[in-house]
Automatic annotation (TrEMBL):
Native organism taxonomy: Eukaryota, Metazoa, Chordata, Craniata, Vertebrata
A molecular-function term among this protein's GO annotations: nucleic acid binding
Top-level taxon in the UniProt lineage: Eukaryota
Taxonomic source organism: Oncorhynchus mykiss
Gene3D superfamilies recorded: Ribonuclease H-like superfamily/Ribonuclease H
Region (Disordered), start-end ranges: 43-63
Domain Tc1-like transposase DDE: 176-290
NCBIfam families: transpos_IS630
Family annotation (Pfam families): DDE_3 (PF13358), HTH_29 (PF13551)
Official protein name in the record: Tc1-like transposase DDE domain-containing protein
UniProt xrefs under SUPFAM superfamilies: Homeodomain-like (SSF46689)
Amino acid sequence: MPRVPAHLCECALGMLQGGMRTADVARAINCNAHTVRRIRQRYRETGRTAERPRSGRPRVTTPAQDRYIRTSHLRDRYRMATTTARVTPGTHNPSISTQTVRNRLREAGLRACTPVVRQVLTRHHRQQRRLRAQTHHRLNRQDWQKVLFTEESQFCFIRGDGRIRVYRQRNECYTEACTRKRDRFGGGGSVMLWGGVSQHHRTKLFVIAGSLNAVRYRENILLPHVIPFLQAHPDMTLQHDNATSHTARSVRDFLQDRNASVLPWPVKSPDLNPIEHVWDLLDRRVRARAIPPRNVWKLAGALMEEWGNISQQELANLVQSVRRRCTAILNAAGMYFN
């Protein structure tokens, strides 16, 4: 049976000293009558209601082995627990179990997690990120209110992002309730969208058909969506990343001919763009619907609807976080930050 908490032991002792019967005290604290008698006997012998220290199960590893397990996995973060268990002898057995290794790592604050996938940052990339972060860090809150953050994002009808977990019992690995059906060859399709957000505004979502090149970006996005927005808000600055379709000479000349101000952006810096979090928020809202979309067309419609349901305050909070992101990049010497 589980142990009786210390405060209930004190309550039980007080009830006994108050003249209550053992059976009544047991019912009051929801335990066995024999447990109440042991609490009273323990108090008579030791003057305390707390249980005596227990030796517990003996550890199969020594403190030196615990340090070895921790150091091995700190040196090689991808080292498997089975490897460590195979080469670590126990105090009573030829080797310890894999679960013992996991327990020791958990005691040291190390847990097995899915690694975050990030782009490769060369020395040049880090330098450019740091220089741009220094420049952007000088901008104040009012300056960031005048930036239109834009980007494209792809939303898959069937997606496995590593966040989904299943709770199952033994031998339930292949049961219907514990498996997910997925086409190996990418069945289900996807939707490519373009959008832009700022402190006080947002653009309409545009569905991109096929791949996006410089011509389609100029004719289908900049001309009908971005240029009218910038003309209606002449103090706004366009932000887009360094994708090939954005940095092509024809696109740069097109924006220059129309006097569109473009914010210089460091290479490989999606962590600086607040619209990345907007896409994640949009995807979560669609997947949290009571009736999920059944095909690509309904997925596009749901994305359009949820785009309008996101409050402007949420977008404003993300826009105002850019300055903190610049500070984080400077603190990380141009590397990615948490």
